[in-house]
## 1
Amino acid sequence: MASDTGQRNTILLVGAAVLGLVVVDRAFNGEVTPASKPTPVASPPATKPAGPKPQLLMIRAEREVRAILRDPESAKFSDMSVRTSPAVAVCGYVNSKNGFGGMTGKQRFISGAVTAVEDQLGVGEMDELWGKVCG
């Protein structure tokens, strides 16, 4: 049994040596070419990391504002813009029906980490927030 293992190892060793010689011979005779180097590709210019697209931010803002409103289906949005400083937020106006079925008139809203509509805040609070975020 020991001789079978030794004989098998000898055959594998001889086979590997023959294969190595064939590869070396072909390389010297030009039949085998080394792998070609990849062609360098120009890197794209450095840009700021892409954040969420403005249109997607506006869609999210509309959804979050509608969740606050008494009659979400009646909401009409206008003058929306995406701000990136001091934080990413969407500023705009919404007009929707109130509890009596009448339209509220344009109200400011801000949607970012938190969403707020003008009539939910105390006097002067929206003015202060609007000035900091949307101003």
## 2
Amino acid sequence: MARRRRRDGHLAHGSGAAAEDGEELIPVMRDEDTKKLLDFVRAKKDFSAIRDEALIRLYYNTGARLSEIGNLLLTDVDMNTQSVHLHGKGAKDRRVRFGAKTARAMSHVHAHRWRHNFAHEWHKAGGDTGDLMLLLGWSSEDMPRHYGASAAAERAQELQTSSASARTSDAMWPGPAEAQPARAGITVWCDRQGIELSRDQEQGHGQVCA
């Protein structure tokens, strides 16, 4: 459904792309449409459902632009005052309040993230899957299997990075044999600190290198 503003200043309803007098119609998201959208995301029963409900409610309560919500930082959200600091166009910042339901939805997002982090770190440290299921109240192995895979992938990435760093270090710092290659049949003169003298330096001031 869409609305247009008539010349007399009152709103008129319409369903076409434009009004009869040529004025463009403004799309309106009604409460029943928002409810249907919320019901749809809740049916997913996973973290994305919790995240999406918080986003929908935040948009609904604040009237913010897509970019304003997308660029939010944790420090922009104040749960004590139930408000959010929006960074608008042209550096025009503003603080907007949101409702209690939105605050609960956003709190659930953070709580779920901490729960995920707990499971991830448990597996990363080599914790037992059965113990994890007991601690987090899981009856299915699907969730611990998911976090076990993510922890294994992170361990593999850390091992690969460590191995690559060690190889680079070895290549940059050659051993003594590489630094001072043997030169058969050639007398090499060094100073008292064992540093090789150049050919144009007087050899009488040095000593034969070891």
## 3
Amino acid sequence: MSAKVTALEPAAGSAELAVADLMRRAHAAMDAYENHDQGRVDEAVTALAWSIYKPENAKLLAELAVEDTGLGNVDSKIIKNTRKTFGALRDLLRAKTVGVIEEDPAKGMVKYGKPVGVVGAVCPSTNPAATPVNKAMMALKGGNAVVIAPSPAGYGTTARTVDLMRAELKKCNHPENLVQILPAPVTKEMTQALINSCDLAVVTGSQNNVKRAMTSGTVAIGVGAGNVPVIIDDTADLDDAAEKITASKIFDNATSCSSENSVVILDAVYDQTLDALKRAGGHLCDAGEKSKVLDGLWQNGHLNRHVIAKDMNIFAEVIGLSPAAATAKFAMVEDDRPGPDRPLSDEKLALVLTVYRARDFADAKRITNAILEVKGKGHSVGIHTARSHACPRTCRGNRRGPSAGQSGPYLRQWRQLQQHAAVHALHGRRNLGGQQHQREPELPPFYQHHPSGHDDRRRQTLRRSSVRRLLVEVRQVISCWRDGFHEF
């Protein structure tokens, strides 16, 4: 590579001195960064995206991540490295962050974009390539520099990722030190020193890191645990719901924070839903296998690193499940109630799905609230239903989950409605086919959901045409970048 990260040796073991040197370099890079020019800022952001989106790099980093951490699988990580980055680039290129970004003549107010400073980005072992790139893209979009604190388990992958980002920045004459990484070996003390020294801490992964960032005195954004519960009601398309839950559950061996950890099924369709989940690839554990899951997935109250995020055949072999389980896509374990004394209601990071039976919709909401009280407050909750009014009822009735899904069509509700429709399209979860209209209608802003008066078919058509246009726009940018053109 044309640019390499220089690993710093902490002087006399001082994490503070090592971080201080990184901060000095970052501030110097910001002084040289042309962050007053929106075109140059967007060029830098696109350079970072291309560093991981480039097919050979996406594959290399996916393979390194699995080799370094032992978590997930290569195919899913290639999708993360490309489509996750693709979606982030799509959104970032449509945003204005330089100069006047908003005016309100009625109030006489003008809003200007202003860098916050040096961003400290703490990244998890479950996503050691895509998360650093995406955080760096967002930091540079705001005119900032970023210092990345990787997970020790994923250090090799993240260091290589940073090498690739710096190389692309150098190609378009941007300061390479806009993106840096903590020197190896990364320690808790060094990560904490970065959190204390940076201007904004953005923390994903360890909940201890999130708590330390939130109490550090530094402005911080912390991403909490997932542990997503999903309701399946008696009007859902059961096979459709089962296929979608399976696709989400097995993606990267359940390392995603949005992966379903529990399903809450209404009694009226409980048995039929279990059958649908079996057809989709699930294995229903008997009482003996349930005990083995409980004994093998947790050890001394902590998740067993030897089985989390492993392929199903490995998981089944290590904890002693049946041959039928080893050939399934994931395991289902029934439980009668969630609670702090019930590990199965916690986040599992493994190919295990907890199944609860609910008497009715009100009982289903009660169960989901109880699950999120164990872990996952403020993250997500979903529902598969054909009743359009069930989604807002789920959102309002669930104090801890900001979003819900709908099966047939499968949507995310409300504020993130169209964003999630696009993400599902990028992940191959939506069919972008259908008739091509001669003239595509003008759409409201992408993040604004359509008025409730529109019928479902028209809303679906509008979303599809919006996604098509966005895909075309970003592919044109990627194509130009690949061919060496840097004019946007």
## 4
Amino acid sequence: MCALSTAHFEGTTPTRYSRRGRIPGSVSLPAQDFLADDGRLLTGPRLSASVDLPDRNTGPVILYCGGGISASLCALALTVVGVDSLVMYDGSLEEWTADPRLSVLTGERQDLAVVVSSEAPPVTASNGTSPLR
């Protein structure tokens, strides 16, 4: 799940990363959607309503953003609403887009259903380690 804005997810806005867009297979879950007008985390029913997962505990939810900050906010919000299995890709788009061998998608995602995988995808950082561990 990409915690950046919809414009960053779709690759329609300038970015500081090597390439615009999103990691293939990801869905948009902007961290800003979890914040109230005063900048604080939504609470109670408002927070629960902002998380639309079909089954919250079928497998790990992999979160990323640009470098880990927005994804951390998503992790907090998802934990508060009861999502048990979260994985943070801390290299996020900063690392992903720097590797020309890795695909990046742009444009609107047509299937907006949230898919929670029961297995983390095989991702390897530039140093040969898995950023998903």
